[in-house]
Specification:
Low-confidence stretches: 488-507
Number of domains: 3
Mean pLDDT: 86
CATH class of the largest domain: Alpha Beta
Helix content: 25-40%
Number of strands: 16
Amino acid sequence: MATELELTRLKLKDDFEFYARNCLAVRSKSGEVKSLLLNKAQRYIHNCIEEQKRQTGQVRAIILKGRQQGVSTYVEGRYYWKTTHRNGVRAFILTHEADSTSALFEMVERYHQSAPNFVKPSTGASNQKELSFDKLDSGYKVGTAGNKSVGRGTTIQYFHGSEVAYWPNAAEHAKGILQAVPDEADTEIILESTANGVGNFFYQQWQQAETGASPFQAIFVPWFWQDEYRKDPKGLRRSDEEQELAEIFGLDDHQIAFRRSKIAELSADGIDGIFAFRQEYPMTAQEAFQVSGGDSLIRPEMVVQARKNKVLAVGPLIIGVDPARFGDDRTAIVRRRGRSAYFLEVFENLSTMEVAGIVHTLIKNENPDQVAVDVGGLGAGVVDRLLELGHDDVVVPINFGSAALDPQRFVNRRAEMWWNMKDWLGSDVPVMIPDRDDLHTDLCAPQYKYDSNSRRKLESKDDIKKRGYRSTDCADALALTFAEPLMTNRDAELITQPTIVDKVAGY
């Protein structure tokens, strides 16, 4: 029978949270050295990572976070735990600047110094950039991203990329040190950062993870999970914006007071404090990756609320189909009945006939009242095939660039559809959309303006991509369900009655 000490050693080896609070010491923000007790953000990240490891045998994670939420503290502790319990493994930490490299290695050294003797391994080489455990043949190294060749020529089992959005040579490191981690079981790559706009390596990797196009899982940590991000709310009276945020995200007055004080602090020297707060302390991933210099048509708060709502699907079934055009575009298909949009499907690398086949099967199985298909790119061939298959009674070809149904208000059909969708999302009656990050990002990406005739104009897909965003395929599919009013036989009867003032079904 195992002794109590043996059982404890086994638990320390297999349970990181137990190990952390009993064996690791950290310096708190107040300067106090104390045991590492995982906070809410760290526990969430740990659970996501452990679940991925159970399912795939390895960890590939990209973490988007706000300032000082303990992500690096968690990862360094995790990798110290792993390298001190396994033979022949190497951990490597790559930071964006020299000061951060020193700070993280100091954290690792504190872990080593504070570890109880019965779990602390024998130490070989130890300097400012390396800590090795000679009897285990394992070790821990750090480097700075300014050196393009750092980490090349080595084999690494555990890699931590810190503040990746600020790496000066991110593309080189992707080809170099990230390739040093073999595609084997029990290997880990964790990339984490606060946001730094769009178009950079970190944002590109986040987008791929968000859409499921890479082995990485996207993990977002909102600022309001931090217990210390609170202020005395004495005398606080919420603004309309603050009240809306409180209702959507469940913020209390102490958190509202913290947000208000930080915005004031960040507003120095002509900086937009609200914009800066959203990037440094995001509530959603989409808010973190905001871009200055324009106005998004659809506000993130509208999307967050629609993702949370549960609304019964009632009314005619309208399906939006946005076929892929080229490159990394995706084919997106979504359903909507009245105020409930649901079951978003996304496909990659499909031919015209394959897309037409999917939609043909969908029409046969789901009997929709309308299928709106974008005829740009592959869409024209998809529509031709569907009409050939006898679906002319439900298939409606939509050209995004064609004239709007209301040409006095909108530059083209695409702008009109998006504004209809915006009005639907922002109405007083609750609406529901699929609870997906990729749809959320797509909905909030386009900016808007007015032309010389005061008509509403939506940013083009090409211009959106130039700003670093991906093609808004998921949101365009949903917008297509607002392309044309759908009038059923029952609607026709109702609108002949002069007392009926409701909109026709479909909006």
